[in-house]
Amino acid sequence: MSSVLLPTPRPLADRHGRVATDLRVSLTDRCNLRCTYCMPAEGLEWLPNDEVLTDREFLRLIGIGTSLLGIRTVRLTGGEPLLRKGLERLVAGIAALPTRPRIALTTNGIGLARRAQALADAGLDRINISLDTLDPETFHRLSRRRRLDDVLAGIAAAQQAGLQPVKINTVLMRGINDHEALPLLRWAIDQGVQLRFIEQMPLDAQHGWNRQTMITAGEILEQLSAEFSLAEDPQDRAARGSAPAELFRIAGTDHRVGVIAAVSQPFCGACDRVRLTSDGQLRNCLFARTEQDLRTPLRSGATDEQIADQWVSAVAVKLPGHGIDDPSFLQPDRPMSAIGG
To answer: Residue range 289-312: average pLDDT?
Structure first.
């Protein structure tokens, strides 16, 4: 039986010595929550359907990334990716690519209870689920929806489907849920999921983010240390690489808790990520104010090699960091829901 010879990938390298191997793909800008740190209560104007990439177009671009450009991990995001029709088929298509990447999903968990097993069967390897509170009223205040039970059911279904370790992403908001750090960690230990606290980032559509009101990683660790003994394991530190979360082992348990200090302790120097929006725009950073249009050449007959050339050129000029601390920093025009986490 003959084997197919695949081309040697070209590195997606920038001028600062970083190589992108992790592709974040936003499948839709739509969401079924209205979280206060992401969008206004009335929602946003969604992209027209004809501007959003089809499954075939997504698969072609992801295939170019994995076969020609060294992409090894593909994370599917939104908006809310579970709102993408036929998500299971798309996951299966990615898993069937000649150079199969690791496939991850970031979701709010609504609707996951009935789909987790099918997604795992299709080839999903890992999952992150957003959960900011265990209190139904606080959940409603933050998300403007009463769907906490649905999220908890989705988490349980992901565990049942074997998508381990299930990672939980939590954003603490001052005066809203910042008192829940310890209850959330106790719950995570009891449930056998890995909790990861994320500093709130300036990606809200309202541009109302204020660094002075942001709960910092230092504050989070101080709260957790009031009850738990935390230590960074040397093996975890060595294995962290470009991973955003700094992991701490919890004494007396087999559990770890992560803290993503994207604002107060940026890790841009080790960034290996590049982003593709649902309308086919390539972004080097969550906070980028420029994009490279891949949809137009994709729909205009460009070859895979020509698209790869554009991709390489776009990543080459990636900035050294997100620049949040720079006095001239401006939030990106697109909110988080249109960029993907």
So the answer is: 96
Domain ranges of the chain: 12-173+272-339
User: What is the rounded distance in angstroms from the CA atom of residue 72 to the CA atom of residue 320?
Assistant: 22
Nearest to 318 by CA among 3, 20, 1, 7: 20
Tokens 């994370």 identify what position?
A: 75
Token duo for residue 309: 């050339």
Which one of 3.20.20.70, 2.30.30.40, 3.40.1160.10, 3.30.565.10 gives the CATH number of domain 12-173+272-339?
A: 3.20.20.70
The residues, any chain, with a CB within 8 Å of residue 278's CB and separated by 6 or more, are: 26, 27, 28, 29, 47, 52, 53, 78, 79, 338, 340
Which residue in this structure is represented by tokens 């908006």?
A: 79
H or E segment at 218? helix 217-225
- Contact of 176 with 142, CB cutoff 8 Å: yes
Question: Which residues are within 8 A (CB) of 266 and not within 5 positions of it... i.e. 6 or more apart?
Answer: 321, 322, 324
Residue 52 and residue 49: Cα distance in Å, rounded? 5
Contact 117, 161 (CB under 8 A): yes
Predicted confidence (pLDDT) per residue in 132-159, tens digit? 999 999 999 999 999 999 999 999 999 9
Residues whose CB falls within 8 Å of the CB of residue 80, separated by 6 or more in sequence, listed in order: 28, 30, 31, 32, 33, 107, 108, 110
Find the radius of gyration of the CA atoms of the chain. 20
Residue 70 · residue 272 · CB < 8 Å: no
- The pTM of the full predicted model, rounded to 2 decimals, is 0.91
